[in-house]
């Protein structure tokens, strides 16, 4: 896809010259079929650092506020992102996520929902990304992002092993508390990947 190649070339230059980004394990992303890419969230460059070496488009769920700037909104849309209104049940974003997964695409979601501050402990995870994974029987790939995000600094992006969350029994569904517990365990495991 031409637009993916354009973006990747641009960020390859940025991440090799101005911000050194070391990427490990991106071969864990399937070359075809649906999957959820679920990283921790450190800043606006995360989606680009995660995706610039993957030969497939990742459709990122990004907060609606980022699309208010028309130019940046076009860049995000060009890169495959779509908006979500945080703090409310956004049925349009949910429908788009289900559609993309049904079409066999890669979808990127930040399970913690917002950026984590450096001086704070591991953030509390939201349950939405895990619910998408369970309800659509989709493979998930955990991704850890950490490092010094400054000019000529070094960032690390590490893809974990792909897996699926177990489905609940036929006559049962996971409770809200169980989804939150699964999400927090997933987030804790991501932070444990950082070396």
Key terms for this structure?
7 strands; alpha/beta; 195 residues
Major sheet attributes? 7 strands, mixed
Strand order in the sheet with the most strands: 1-7-6-2-5-3-4
Structural class designation: alpha/beta
| Termini gap | 34 Å
Order of helices and strands: HEEHEHEHEHEEH
Q: What fraction of the residues are assigned to beta strands by DSSP?
A: 15-25%
Shape: globular
Overall pLDDT = 89
Question: Percentage of helical residues?
Answer: 25-40%
User: DSSP helix count?
Assistant: 6
Quantity of strands, as a count: 7
Low-confidence stretches: none
Q: How big is the Rg?
A: 16 Å
Care to describe what's here?
This protein is of the alpha/beta class and 195 residues long. It has six helices and seven strands, in the order H-E-E-H-E-H-E-H-E-H-E-E-H. The protein has helices at 2-17, 46-51, 70-78, 91-102, 128-135, 176-192, and strands at residues 20-24, 35-39, 58-63, 82-84, 106-108, 140-147, 154-159. Helix 3 (70-78) links the parallel strand 3 and strand 4. The longest helix has 17 residues, at 176-192. The mean pLDDT is 89.
In short:
With 195 residues, the chain is of the alpha/beta class.
Ordered list of secondary-structure elements with their pairings:
Blueprint: H1 2-17, E1 20-24, E2 35-39, H2 46-51, E3 58-63, H3 70-78, E4 82-84, H4 91-102, E5 106-108, H5 128-135, E6 140-147, E7 154-159, H6 176-192
Parallel strand pairs: 1-7, 2-5, 2-6, 3-4, 3-5
Antiparallel strand pairs: 6-7
